[in-house]
Amino acid sequence: MPESIADGKVVTIHYTLTLDDGSEVDSSRGGDPLVYLHGSQNIVPGLEAALTAKSPGEAVKVDVTPEEGYGHVDPEGQRRVPKESFPEGLELEVGMELAAQDDDGHVLPLVIKEVADADVLVDMNHPLAGQNLHFAVDVIEVRAASEEELSHGHVHGPDGHHHHHEHE
Ligand code: ZN
Known about the structure:
It is built from two helices and nine strands; from the N terminus they run βββαββββββα.
């Protein structure tokens, strides 16, 4: 009796992500599958909900709205930052992806939208904010998570793609 997907299960999937215009923005196919812990918000909410109760061998097509995906584009997410805030010697270019760190040490990915004389317009919205997401998923494997994985809220081990940070 194969396990089906539920909270606290480690799930292995292959997936392809396309947008409304049919363009493919991400895929695990041809590479390593994605391994994640179900019920721990490791993946976008709409996809996680649609995979609940599915079993290995099932193919699932999921359409996810921005609300259930990466959210809407927040105009407040764009701001002008003085050039001297960037590391010295860094060649600033439009489209460049950087990571800033806030006071709590959280990593905030951002994209440069415009480089002016004195300052730089950066966008902190997720690159897929505001997009409908279309996933084609194959469920490959489902197993129970270990106690440690459950307490950390993510998958460990060789299939986990998990670069372990220091845990408190
Ligand atoms: Zn961990």
